[in-house]
Structures are given as structure tokens and as C-alpha cells.
Amino acid sequence: MISCQGATSITTFVFFLCDKIEPALCKAVFERTAKDIAEDMKSKFPDFKSNRANLEVCILRYLAEEENFEYFKQYLTSPKEFFWSYIEGRVKNHCLDESRMLRMFLDSSLESLYGNILSAVYFSSQIVKDRKDREYKISLWLDEFCRELAEVINLPRSELKGIEQQEVTDIEFLSSAMAKSLTDLRDKLKAELADADLSSFARKPHTILAEHFSGCWEQCPFCGSVCANLIQNHDGDHQSDFHRPRALMGTRWRETDHLVIDICSSLVSSNCKFNVGDQQWICYKKYRNAGPPYSTWNIVPDSSTQVYWKWFVSHFRAELEDLYNKKFQGKGEISEAWQRITKQEALSDLDTCLATSMGRKNHSGSAV
């Protein structure tokens, strides 16, 4: 039989220890759940199964299917922010729909961590229960317990100094009392987690997912296309796999209000000129002479324009004209061939462009 004093010591010990475990366990549940959600989405959603080039194709597909010009504006002017917003939206749809996926993820993490802590209680008890040195038995138990949980929850051994002097000798009773208290703690946290949403996470699942698609976000000064390099602050020039019509940035032909539908990768092989302010005109062929940001880009001459952007310009002609107060006339006239392009043809072109991009041999650190 355990003495009243011994029982009281164990009760005090268990209360103190579980009081320390609770915030550490709660934090660990959210951290593990955030990682699990990110990994789950990377395995199940085509958007997140590959690299940023693939994600961009999925985003462009989404934009075409929505046919919302405001979304396109956000994407064209602030691509990084739009990428993050898109990822956040996908995570919310996955976790907060009627299937209550977030609750399932949280419960799963809680059960797993609860099992880890129970195992640590059992393991620590098995190691020290037969030791003869009563004076240090509970201190050794705490040493083993914290060591077992080192990779599970953040429970510093130094914070438990206050209870290591408790007179606890009946390790089996301690183990039983801990198991009961931990079960009560699990049930309490499970009830509290039922009302959790994504704002409850210190580090959001979509943040973890978005970081997988990090890299350089510099935009071409001519057309706004994003640098394809997967390394932020990379060495060497910026480079984009596919440039766009300059009309997307509101560029007009000199002394007219006619939008430029040519792409910059075509213009850099021409004798046309562009303005860099103060009436200074630079030949596209010598665009690097304009200095930064132009000189930091390697724009490879290429006369082909993606079908997708031809469709976009034709489909949102009126919106682009209103946005920039300019016209698709003169040298910027949209051809009948562009106007005949269907949305399905534009979407099919995305897949072709992705395959082309994936097949290219890139330098180290470049997107593929």
C-alpha cells in the first residue's frame, strides 16, 4: 500500500508535469498538423506535386476557367502574392469543407503525440522502477522521460527541477496516475481543438506549402513574366521560360495610344526602341545598355507567343483597353487568328509549354 504522503507527492508531481506538458503538446499538435496537411496536399493535388513551373500552369488554368479579369490583374501585377493567395485558398478549401478535414488532421496528430507521451511514461518507468537509489529515482525518471520526448514535444528538463525532489518511490503507481491524467488531458485538448481553424496555427499549413515553391520572384521589366530560377538572390542573370505581349503591362507604340502586342523576346531581335524615361530611347537589341533592371535579364530571342496569352489578349481586349486607356489598333491590331483561339486551345497550349519547359536542360538552380 502507498502512504498518504506518497500518494500526495505523486498527485503533486503528476499535476505539475501535466501542467507543463499541456502547452507543449498543444503546440506540437498544431506544428505536426501543419506539416501533415502540406504533405497531404503535395501528394493528392496535381498543383503541388511538382515544381513552381507546374504550379504556375495550374494557376493559369484556374484563371482561364474563372475568366475573372480582376484575378488576372492581381496575378500579373503581384505574382508572388497571388501564388500565396492561391495556395492559401486551396488549403482552406481542402481543410474547411464539409468533410471537416482539419478536425481529422488535428485529432490524428493529437492521438499520435498522446501515444508517444504514454510510451515515454512506460519506458521511463520500466528503466527506473527497480533501482535501489530512492533519492535519485524520480530525477532519473524525469531524465529518461524528457529524453524519450526530445523529438516529440518541446519539454525542457530544466523546467522540471521543481518536482524532482518529490518523494516518489512507487513508480508503478506514478505510471498509472500519469496515464490517467494524460488521458484526461487528451480529452480536454480534443474538445478544445474542435473549434480550431487555420488562424489557430502559429505557422500556417499554406506557408509551409508555399515555401516549397520559393525562388526568385523578379519580374521581366518589359512584360512582367517571373524569373524561372528556383534560388532567391541567385547568381547570374534573371531569365524567363516564356515572355508575354507587352500590352499586358500597358506598353504603347511611340507617339500613339496603340498597345504593343509583340513579346519582348521577339522585340530584342528587332531595331525597335523603348523608352527608359527622360525621353531616352534604347534599341531593344541593346536593351542591357538601359542599365538595371534591364541589364540584369537575359532575354533570349524567340518570336513565338504562347497561345494562352493570345487568347487572353483577345478575350479581355475591352478590359485591357479600359485599364490602360489605350487601344489595340495600328501595329497593335489583334489578328483574326488570335480572335479565333478558343479557351480549350489556350489550356492545351499550357500543357505543351510545361512539357517544353520540363524538357529543357537548365543550369543548376534554374526552374525545370
Concise account of the structure shown:
The protein is mostly helical.
Strand content range: under 5%
Helix/strand class? mainly alpha
Distance between the termini: 70 Å
Widest β-sheet, arrangement of strands: 1-2
Instruction: Summarize the amount of helix as a percent range.
Output: 40-55%
Count of domains: 2
Round the mean pLDDT to the nearest integer and report it: 90
Q: Gyration radius, to the nearest Å?
A: 30 Å
**Largest β sheet strand count, sense and barrel closure:** 2 strands, antiparallel
User: Which regions have little confidence, pLDDT < 50, spanning 5+ residues?
Assistant: 361-368
What's the helix-strand series? Answer: HHHHHHHHHEEHHHH
Shape: elongated
Number of strands: 2
Helix count? Answer: 13
Protein name: Interferon-induced very large GTPase 1
InterPro entries: VLIG_GTPase
Characterize the structure shown.
It contains 13 helices and 2 strands. With 368 residues, it is mostly helical. A two-stranded antiparallel sheet has the order 1-2. A hairpin with a 5-residue loop joins strand 1 and strand 2. The N and C termini lie far apart (70 Å).
Give a topology summary.
Layout: H1 4-44, H2 52-66, H3 69-77, H4 79-95, H5 101-128, H6 137-148, H7 171-193, H8 205-211, H9 264-267, E1 273-275, E2 281-283, H10 307-315, H11 317-324, H12 336-339, H13 343-359
Antiparallel strand pairs: 1-2
